[in-house]
Amino acid sequence: MLQLGARDLAQRLLAHEAAADKTSVSAESAALRVHEKLRRSLCVLAGVAGYRSLASRALTLAKARAPGLRAMQVTADGTLQMHSEARSESHKGLAGDNQVILISELLGLLHAFIGEALTLRLLREAWPNAVFEDCDSGEEEKA
Amino acid sequence: MSAQDKVAINKLPTGVLGLDEIVGGGLPEFSFNIIAGAPGSGKTTLAHQFVFANATPERPALYFTVLGESAIKMLRYQQQYTFFDPAKLPGSIRFINLSQVVLEKDLGAVLAEIIKEVEKANPAVVVVDSFRTMVRRPQGSPSELDLQSFIQHLALFLASWQATTFLIGEYDEDELRDNPVFTVADGLIWLRQIAERNSVVRKLQIMKLRGQASVPGLHTFRITDAGLQAFSRTFGLSGHKKRPPSQRRLSIGVPELDKMMGGGIPEGDSVLITGASGTGKSVLATQFIAAGIRQGEPGIVAVFEERPQAYADRAGSFGLDLESPQKDGTLLILYLRPLDLSVDETMNEILDAVKRIGAKRLVIDSLAGFEMALSPGFREDFRESLYRMIFALTGIGVTILSTVEVDESFTEFPFSTYSISFLTDDIVRLRYVSIEGELRKIVVIIKMRGGDHSQDIREYEITSEGMVIAGERLKDYQHLITGIPERLRASEKKKVIE
């Protein structure tokens, strides 16, 4: 598992996005923005299809832990959205702890596939202003 | 045009141990190269090694992945190699997936995407993995003209942007003649993986390299934790000058045998000790190494049939201390991994050891063990390989003593079962003889290329001090070399002495 823990890291990213967008009151928007930043970064690396399959797997794992996420789906281009039929109902979607669970599952998958060092490097690339000092894997580029 | 008028082509390190020497010092900067081979032959790993060796934050590497291996999985596996430095990602090495463009658009759009990324990143290295899947597209293969135009534009653009490029592809050698990509390419590296009986042998060939001379032929390579390691057919000695012949003689460690050899072994010679099992070949080889160490000449013993400790213990039983010189770095006993070796790999290990300790003497004990340690495919070329190896080693002044076991026959007097006597400068034959109801041993110098040697047939014993030559030449017998000598009658003996 990641040095800091996928959950802590997810919380940190969500907090960073929430703080960055003071205009929005929706916690859901922070989760969607984290997901979107990960999508943009990982689609370059793995392609849309590659990212979509990773995100779908993370959502499936997250749904098992947070049934409220059943309202969410991954679209063809890898973005995250709520089922159209769920929008009219009072589904929790990404509210509360669900967003942390979903993002932490995605980070956990990345960690499982490419390891801590590369995962953190990808996150640093997507969030250049976020603070990851205490999760430094000790890998500094050699001159 | 004089040398100073010519443009100097900068050579980039390949990041693959041994490959720089094969390609003539490194790959030409700004060259457009193809790495071809079957799946599993090491193409992606080779490209990664080059990328990790050359990418910098100022001049990064762009690694375009297309259909085929997922980039996530590629990173998962490639990071297992020691050359993989995660700190280089994504600042110096950027992976870009082109699958979507390839699947949905035409080659023009693919080219446009590559151009966009290259102009943005100003890379020193560009890799397209796999180029083959890029041009073999789901909408049907492009026309030959479209393909030619795409390759032409890609090569032109990347060269103009001063990028050294690698296209990776699963090609067959049959395609070499008709595929336009091979015409455009400046360099073509072909990797092969050949199953031979129960062994797998990997070989690479530089089929084309514009601008500089590469070492021709098939070179073996191995994939280890460190990635690919190549072993040049010329053992990395292609640029070395052959040492002038030495007049110096080296002691073999048995004073009487030195005399029989005309004063010892000429330095830089290849000596073959041949005899049946138990005749003392390994003992003599150990005495040769021990004599060198006493003279301050570091030595290497390459063993194939027993472990170094067992070899040193056996030497100890003859009063020869091989432990201390190993500790003080004047002796290396190399136990070479058996069953799938190539001669080139063996040579690489031996040459590394020679350089490391400045060895002057080398024992190969034995040639039969060496042959058995090789992959079956290499056994077929054993003589040729041995020739290259001996030539290379003696060329740098190492004196080699090899042992070879021969079947003891009482009707023949074979020097070696390998017909390799032409490869050696000197041959010492050890043999059993039956005399007066005892199985005794004789030694005879068959050949000394460097000059005169004794024609005597001498009896010897293996004592607690090793090989000891006993008494004068055996004058009382004839047909000694048959193994079943006859005692001469007094009149015949007188004739022999005269």
How would you describe this structure to a colleague?
- The complex is a heterodimer of chains A (143) and B (498).
- Chain A has 143 residues and is mainly α.
- Chain A is built from four helices and two strands.
- Chain A has helices at residues 6-20, 27-65, 84-87, 98-126, and strands at 72-74, 80-82.
- In chain A, strands 1-2 form a two-stranded antiparallel ribbon.
- In chain A, a hairpin with a 5-residue loop joins β1 (72-74) and β2 (80-82).
- The model of chain A has no long low-confidence stretch (mean pLDDT 82).
- With 498 residues, chain B is an alpha/beta fold.
- Chain B has a nine-stranded mixed β-sheet, sandwiched between helices. In chain B, strands 16-15-17-18-14-19-20-21-22 form a nine-stranded mixed β-sheet, sandwiched between helices.
- The longest helix of chain B has 17 residues, at 144-160.
- In chain B, 31% of the residues lie in helices and 27% in strands.
- The mean pLDDT of chain B is 86.
- In chain B, α5 packs parallel to α7 (144-160) and α13 (343-357) packs parallel to α16.
- The radius of gyration of chain B is 29 Å and the shape is elongated.
Offer a few descriptive terms.
heterodimer, A: mainly alpha, two-stranded antiparallel sheet, B: 498 residues, nine-stranded mixed sheet
